[in-house]
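We were asked to recover a plausible sequence for a given structure. The inputs and outputs are reproduced exactly as logged, with field labels preserved.

PROBLEM: sequence recovery
POSITIONS: 504
GIVEN STRUCTURE:
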């Protein structure tokens, strides 16, 4: 943790930014000291991303102070920001897939030798030195294509270190990482802090904030709320500051009458992906599907819905067998799938909210093959209202919404089909604590109305807080089925990491 007299490397004070009539930042403030890891948290729409984009040179502020190493700056491009010593590590880096790791790190600034020729040997040696310094083993010569998200992030960090960046911003870097990958990233982050760099860590995961960070700044509704040493606060304090109220029940699970079987999956097998998967989802029941990243949970969900095929087994809905690879048949039978990647698989990101909500029911809305905007808007308005989607209008482009509101739009789209079974993959990934509570309450209400829900989640508190039964997968197999009353973090993780069964 930095001392009180550690130099301030980045300071923003009362920064303002508007986009037309929309005020994205009312009063953004942040003070980052050298040799510290500073958490920046807040609900989606709190202004965190706008503040970061100003630091990164993507946006120019409309007002307020912005200083780097004590000198006032006003970046007009990302190149200026990088040249001044700022680096941003995004959740999903954008490397050039056909170029090698070394070429990506030195893109646009290749080392040259005699006669101005590119010195590939010198660049490779420098990359090896960087990776040794960061404690990672990545082949400098391999193409970037096929690298894991974790390795891509390490490459971006190596690039930042090679540029001697004094400020590194990590924006939701752990969302797609396994536990081992997260710990490696944290080890690297701590080593960079110990070198005297200042790091900003943006995350919705409080366990990570408390494990990694020295200080935390909270934003709400585009404004600065508070900065506190991490040792002097609690998750409950941060939640109150983020949402402006007590979120008394993050997992508002209602008791529901569990009825007859709806979805029955028997001996589902796809060689090399998952094997002999069997389970049942009943009316009024939330079944949690847990396991580590790569266990095969999402692949099973996609196979059940018909997006992906499978070699053996059966999927039955209310006694009716669903043919493999037939998502339209699954939809007609009453199954809906909210996918893990809402931006790529759940939304037409450049279309409006109304068009997205009605995407799956356009056939039902049409009259003699025609759909009017009025028909579309009436149907969309009902669901946008029920899920409290925060958008200026139904024609608001989905890409401009916060992550939480995008998730609500995807949910609205599938709930508009009036399914009997909802398969929802990572329902609250990347959304803020207030919206998480809303999504959990909605799932509980749907189960109370008799819907069966298969909920896939990598967040153990979510699984334990919401599921009536927990199925645990490991390496493509179900290793345990645990009743709600018996499910604990310990026995779920045991089943996720051990091949033998550990059912309660």
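RECOVERED SEQUENCE:
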């Amino acid at each position: 943790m930095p001392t009180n007299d550690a130099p301030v490397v980045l300071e923003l004070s009362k920064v303002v930014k508007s986009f037309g009539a929309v005020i994205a930042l009312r009063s953004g403030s942040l003070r980052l000291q050298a040799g510290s890891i500073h958490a920046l948290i807040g609900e989606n729409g709190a202004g965190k991303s706008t503040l970061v984009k100003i630091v990164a040179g993507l946006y120019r502020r409309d007002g307020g102070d912005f200083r780097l190493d004590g000198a006032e700056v006003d970046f007009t491009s990302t190149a200026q920001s990088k040249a001044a010593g700022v680096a941003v590590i995004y959740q999903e880096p954008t490397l050039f897939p056909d170029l090698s790791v070394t070429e990506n790190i030195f893109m646009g600034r290749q080392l040259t030798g005699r006669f101005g020729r590119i010195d590939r040997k010198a660049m490779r040696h420098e990359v090896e030195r960087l990776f040794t310094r960061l404690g990672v083993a990545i082949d400098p010569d391999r193409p970037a294509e096929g690298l894991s998200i974790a390795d891509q992030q390490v490459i971006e960090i190596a690039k930042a270190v090679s540029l001697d960046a004094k400020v590194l911003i990590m924006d939701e870097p752990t969302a797609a990482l396994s536990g081992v990958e997260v710990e490696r990233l944290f080890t690297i982050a701590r080593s960079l802090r110990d070198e005297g760099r200042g790091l900003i860590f943006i995350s919705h995961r409080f366990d990570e904030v408390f494990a990694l960070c020295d200080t935390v700044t909270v934003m709400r509704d585009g404004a600065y709320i508070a900065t506190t040493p991490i040792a002097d606060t609690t998750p409950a304090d941060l939640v109150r500051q983020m949402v402006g109220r007590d979120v008394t029940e993050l997992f508002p699970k209602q008791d529901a009458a569990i009825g007859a079987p709806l979805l029955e999956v028997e001996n589902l097998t796809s060689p090399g992906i998952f094997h002999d998967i069997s389970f049942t989802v009943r009316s009024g029941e939330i079944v949690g599907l847990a396991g580590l990243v790569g266990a095969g949970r999402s692949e099973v969900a996609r196979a059940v819905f018909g997006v992906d095929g499978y070699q053996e087994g059966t999927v039955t809905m209310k006694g009716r067998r669903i043919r493999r690879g037939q998502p339209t048949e699954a939809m007609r039978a009453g199954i809906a799938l909210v996918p893990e990647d809402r931006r790529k698989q759940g939304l037409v990101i450049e279309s409006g909210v109304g068009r997205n909500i009605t995407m799956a029911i356009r056939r039902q809305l049409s009259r003699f093959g025609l759909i009017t905007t009025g028909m579309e808007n009436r149907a969309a308005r009902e669901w946008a209202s029920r899920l409290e989607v925060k958008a200026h209008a139904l024609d608001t482009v989905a890409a401009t919404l916060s992550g939480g509101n995008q998730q609500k739009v995807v949910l609205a789209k599938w709930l508009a089909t009036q399914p009997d079974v909802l398969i929802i993959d990572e329902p609250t990934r990347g959304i803020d604590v207030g919206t998480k509570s809303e999504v959990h309450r909605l799932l509980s209400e749907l189960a109370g109305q008799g819907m069966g829900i298969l909920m896939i989640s990598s967040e153990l508190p979510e699984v334990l807080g919401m599921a009536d039964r927990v199925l645990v997968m490991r390496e493509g197999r179900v290793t345990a089925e645990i009743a709600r009353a018996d499910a604990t973090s310990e026995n779920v993780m045991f089943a996720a990491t051990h091949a033998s069964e550990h059912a309660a």
